[in-house]
């Protein structure tokens, strides 16, 4: 039901951590103030956010906001587990201190998402059997470290990485512990990849513990494939937008999550160039759409 769902928005529409020149001039205070003004109660963490939990908590409390989650870059396929775990524990403890109970990990070993010289569709990495074993075992272990603080580790499938497609999500979910690892379901990345986002939603609903609501412009996807764009070129060119502004019909997504009794956060996340897509305007547009279509 709608009362089980809390609505957040990611700061990536204001300042892009992977392309710092996008929104580089927008200060942290403007970002969180506009989130609150647009009607959201949660936020994920961006690079401009204060690193001191006390400072961040005060800024958020003034605006009625809570941190719901934050991205964690894992390198389980390319670095020793102990090194990744040490970074994870620091990340976990910071998130716990600012009120988040969900962590969103994405494997960055061999990732091309930040490579502006490689086509996102033509150069996508695939893992060897040995790398899959390291990834699944490592995520199970990190998930148990999250559980020590009553936190939930979720996996964020992502364009340009080794876990992007429906088949790769299947392999990851089938080979990890359901208690230790949940799924972070992201509409935009599935649709951009060419997957059936509703089939993934239905199949893995019991594992979905965090949701990113991201729309996609089909004509930009077509162009990205034809012109061999990198992932970041596609972002810059506007392949993503907020729910209600692109090609995705979110009503079946909203209905399925509500009917399944999903409890937790829905996060509007649409990386765009703020010079082209005013962040406050698009935050309000998404908030209105979700209210009208989902009653949230």
TrEMBL record:
Keywords: Cobalt, Lyase, Manganese
EC number(s) per entry: 4.2.1.44
GO-annotated biological processes: inositol catabolic process
InterPro entries, sorted: IolE, IolE/MocC, IolE/XylAMocC-like, Xyl_isomerase-like_sf, Xyl_isomerase-like_TIM-brl
PANTHER family attached to this UniProt entry: HYDROXYPYRUVATE ISOMERASE (PTHR12110), INOSOSE DEHYDRATASE (PTHR12110:SF41)
Domain of life: Bacteria
GO molecular function annotations of the record: manganese ion binding; myo-inosose-2 dehydratase activity
Xylose isomerase-like TIM barrel domain segment(s): 36-287
Enzyme type, top EC level: lyase
Coiled-coil segments: none
Descriptive protein name: Myo-inosose-2 dehydratase
